[in-house]
Specification:
Blueprint lengths: L1 E5 L6 E6 L240
Antiparallel strand pairs: 1-2
Length: 258
């Protein structure tokens, strides 16, 4: 029995393969624009140089697929299983990855500008030097994620889990971390200008040398935080938890305004 892959809009057959699965298939250079691959098992499939624009990959299983540098713009990846997948340098601008499983995925240098990652599981993923400008990461699981040097300007990280994440020298300007959990996170040298940390948990986080000028830190848990050399000029610390006064009081910081 042959398996037919059809265009999601026109119903036109784009590809016909022998058997009932695409597992391990060679789809290199194949035109799959607009293909309906919803819930399809694509484990081990070769998609290098394949055309996937506007394809429906909702709920698809993409284990062991090499997507390095692949253009995935316009692809619907909601709920897709991308665990351990190599997405280095992939083009994912404005892609819908809501609820996707991206545990331990390699997203180094990937372009996720404007991508929707709401509720996605990125635990253990590598996002070094990725572009997440204006991305939606609400309720996302980013626990233990490598975010060194990442561009997260204007991103929405409300209610996200960033425990143990590495945000060293990340650009977090205007990012929204309201109610986010950043316990034990490394924010050393990060640019946090105008970021919103209202009611976030920053317990035991490393903010050494971070730029926190004019930050909204209202109600934030800052217990055990390392703020050596951090710039807190104009920051709002009203209602913040500052037990042990880890914030270098000799610099004249108060519980309300710096």
């Amino acid at each position: 029995m042959n398996m037919k892959i059809k265009n999601r809009y026109t119903g036109k057959v784009l590809l016909e393969v022998s058997g009932e699965t695409l597992k391990g298939a060679n789809l290199r250079d194949v035109n799959l624009e607009g293909a309906n691959l919803r819930n399809v098992n694509l484990e081990g499939v070769d998609l290098q140089d394949a055309k996937l624009q506007d394809a429906d990959l909702r709920g698809a299983h993409l284990w062991d697929v090499d997507l390095r540098g692949v253009d995935l713009r316009g692809v619907d990846l909601r709920g897709a299983d991308l665990q351990d997948v190599n997405l280095q340098g992939a083009a994912l601008q404005d892609v819908n990855l809501q609820g996707a499983a991206l545990q331990d995925a390699d997203l180094q240098g990937a372009n996720l500008e404007g991508a929707n990652l709401e509720g996605a599981n990125l635990e253990g993923a590598n996002l070094q030097n990725a572009n997440l400008w204006h991305a939606n990461l609400q309720n996302a699981n980013l626990q233990g994620v490598d975010l060194q040097g990442v561009d997260l300007r204007d991103s929405d990280l409300r209610d996200s889990d960033l425990r143990d994440s590495d945000l060293w020298r990340a650009n977090l300007q205007n990012a929204n971390f309201q109610n986010a959990n950043l316990q034990d996170a490394n924010l050393r040298g990060a640019n946090l200008q105008n970021a919103n940390f209202q009611n976030a948990n920053l317990q035991d986080a490393n903010l050494r040398g971070a730029g926190l000028w004019h930050e909204n830190l209202e109600g934030v848990n800052l217990e055990g935080v390392n703020l050596e050399g951090a710039n807190l000029e104009g920051a709002n610390l009203e209602g913040a938890k500052l037990s042990d006064y880890s914030i270098c009081l000799e610099e004249g910081l108060s519980r309300r305004k710096v």
